[in-house]
Amino acid sequence: MVDHLLGIQGLSKSEIYRYLDTAHSFVEVSERDIKKVPTLRGKTIVNVFFEPSTRTLSSFDIAGKRLSADTINVSIGSSSVKKGETLLDTVRTLESMNPDVLVMRHSESGAPHFASRYLSRTSVVNAGDGAHEHPTQALLDLLTLRQHFATKKRGLEGLRVGFVGDVRHSRVARSSIWAHLTLGNEVRLIGPNTLVPTDFAKGAFGTDSVRVYNDLAKGLEGLDVVVSLRMQLERQEEHYVPNLDEYSKEYCVSERMLAKYAPDSIVIHPGPMNRGTEISGDVADGPRSLIRQQVTNGVAVRMAVLYLLARTVGATEEVGHG
Amino acid sequence: MAKARPVVIHGGTLIDAASDRDGEFDLLIEDGKVKAIEKPGVLKEHAEAEHIDAKKQWVMPGCIDLHVHLREPGEEWKETVQTGAEAAALGGFTSICCMPNTKPANDSAEVTRFILEKAKAAGASRVLPIGAISMERKGKQLAPYSELAKAGCVAFSDDGDPVADAGLMRRALEWCLMLGLPLSCHEEDRNLSCGGCMNESPRSLRLGLKGFPGVAEDVMIARDIELARFTKGKVHICHVSTARGVELIRRAKNDGINITCEVAPHHLLLDDSCCETYDTAFKMMPPLKDNEDIAGLIAGLKDGTVDAIASDHAPHDRDSKLVEFSRATVGILGLQTSLPLLIEMSAEGVLSRRRMVELLCSGPAKSFDLPYGRLSVGSDADVIVVDPNRTWRFAEEDIRSKSKNSPFVGRDLKGLAVHTFVGGRHVVVNGRLASEMALNTK
Fold first, then answer.
1. Which of B205, B272, B320, B329 would best serve as a mutation to test chain A binding (most A beta carbons within 10 A)?
2. What does pTM read for this prediction?
3. A99: cis peptide before it, omega within 30°?
4. Do A131 and A103 contact (CB within 8 A), yes or no?
């Protein structure tokens, strides 16, 4: 029975902390002169991306290499127009080469869950599926918050976290919402009715403690963490927003708004950013921003995930040596 | 061909909503017709007849399914007229109306006649073709309704491609009013459903699957009710899946509009929580709904708003379901599970036995104005004998269809059609196809 990481939904608090603790011990590896440990020597990791990605793919690739695993990147266009091999045939073909971990990115929600049911020897890591989950992004966000709040003598629990923007289409938001709910944090979803439907508050996450705000100022009030979400141009064509200008006037996370309504907050963004649309330059580059730490932590978190799934069972839990 | 022996079915409980019978009656089949229905004992003198002991069993009119897909011509690897008609007979359906979404579409007498010839050769249940509303089901040009009707079509539908053009729909209703035939409508506003693959709900939001809102169905039902009111044409609403849709139809009926509707068993027995694991076996159109909608459908079954149970039998090969949820084909098999699932609902007290028979027999007959679905002296002998207490586990081997896409595989079912007569022909004998038994004895 192999383990997978398909989502944050269903993970217990201790499982979340286990990933974070392990990631914490890997942070230091990337700061060394020789950025490599032999932990996963002889293991094979295939990053199979059915959707284009730069940062997530390179982050997983670097993470695997720093653990001394052999990593292979396979990029496959997944446009439904381009009809070729089925998803199942692709992943079964890859499994036949005996990799230890299959890191999978796909444009359709549930694709890694579907694929994992047909694999018997390979661990699947969800690197983002449609508008569903992106668990390693949620974990790296948590690691970043943990580091920040440690300097304030606070932990990850008891925080007020607000997601601003296109929650409807965001897999990052879904994974992070699960994480913050498990940690007992207050979760607010802030945005226009079309992108943050009230259905989110109606038990979508099995709790009524998720609150929806259409008004940015009200939603920001008293937040500890602001998660700014990427706004995509096509939302305009799909009638979710009249135009990006109208959107940014109402929902852009700016220093002016934060200074007034959430003066003590920090800001994270999963990237890539649209400056001036969902986040202003003064926030992105300002003292509240933890955006670059997020990217750095991405490697450590992915090292932790790969390590926990691919390590030889029975091997010591000690990491970082060598 | 030698004249078939008369058959006496005795000792059973005869249930027929059309003639309001529910009690001990014996039934005589002769020359393809119901020759006599009598109190027990009266038909004993027919010594030359084959006698079927139906003790503890139900004798019903053959069920009618207004909505099936037979895939022939064009997708014979999924289903053929023969395998579909045989699955129907095994499931207790003596008449099935097949949708025109074949390749080519059934928009000409040639295709209609081809289907009818295949059905005749199959020698199982009656196959009643539904012609297209528009050429190639593209919603641009009216199909030749009179030609199709003369060739044997019993209704018209563009099936899964809803008629977006209200003006075309108006003229179609006006033309078909002359023929006395209904338009059977899959109700969906594509600008609202917008590629959605499951019920739009808090659950679809969480799963990140594109939602198909119930209102996409409701607005089209409302449109077609008003067009039926305006033209006086006959509209039949396919697979109603929303509580609001049922309410709209209820009001239309109260207004005296010429409208009927059907509900599929899966919309009554499965809900959208089945999509949790992205299992494509539960992907259908319209998508599975929540409990509130299901309660609305059941209320419609009880108060008579719903006229018929129709399975939307949709065979799909395994490969087309073994893909990402959003890319999988839609639909499930239904012909062999509808009757047992309805018997289960009736046994659980959701529906009366009489109402169940009405929804499976006389209700659909009335919706399409078919001369079947009733047991009266002189009517065609479409008769089934059902063992309502037989419990059996539905297995893939039981499926007669070429495709095996049923989420009910592995489920314990209650009730089985043990005998099926189609126009007096004994097609299913003791739960098995007569044609197969004959082959085996050769």
1. B205
2. 0.93
3. no
4. no
